[in-house]
Amino acid sequence: MHRFFVSQGSIDSQKVTLGPDRAHQIRHVLRLGPGDKIAIMDNTGWEAIVVLQRINKTAVEGTIVERHLVTTESKVDLVLYQALIPRDRFEFVLQKCTEIGVRRFVPMLADRCKVRNPRPRLDRWRKIITEAAEQSGRVILPEVAEPVDSPVVLSAGRRPGLRLLAVPGDSGQPLHKLLPGPSSGPVELCIGPEGGFSEREHQLANSACWLKVSMGRRILRAETAAVVACALILYELGQMEP
Fold this sequence. Notes:
- The protein starts with a strand and ends in a 6-residue tail after the last helix.
- α2 (87-100) runs parallel beside α3 (122-136) and α2 runs parallel beside α7 (222-236).
- 30% of the residues lie in helices and 27% in strands.
- The protein is α/β, with parallel strands linked by helices.
């Protein structure tokens, strides 16, 4: 069944009205018609099953026939600070880590980023996150923030939960030794750019009590490290169970 995030303003009691963009997708791309069913989510944790009644060029109208609370969201508040990398690779991180269960993305301008004057692409990033959340069965959309400089991230005051800085090889501890086992506490993960973090950034992280976590024996690309680390964190914390 096709799934769509909608605004709460699209729902009026048992009636649902979707605008022109969704109308085009439902009518011309998915080729759905009256009587077909879709699922909608309003970012509150609930999913509703809708029977389509009327479809035209400008709107889709339907009736809600079922509502249920969905339990696909992770209980762990996982925040990913991802250093800016080439656009297609950064968008890959947004897509795959949304599927995995990240709650919030913070693009980060690190010392060794090749992108020096980033132009925020929040609308496109949110579209990628929305499509990935719809596909993967999520009911809460992850947030994506404006890009921030690495010193702002790494020197931030102590907050509850774990703060993990991904590093290559044996310069960090194995992930399973840093995680407490099944838990729902917050976790912040910081992934650097090509070339890793600078000495200045390491000093800031040490002062702010970030824990250095090893990404294993092999050197991973930034986007690979993000996906692998997020999946392993949620697995170790008991959030990848069926």
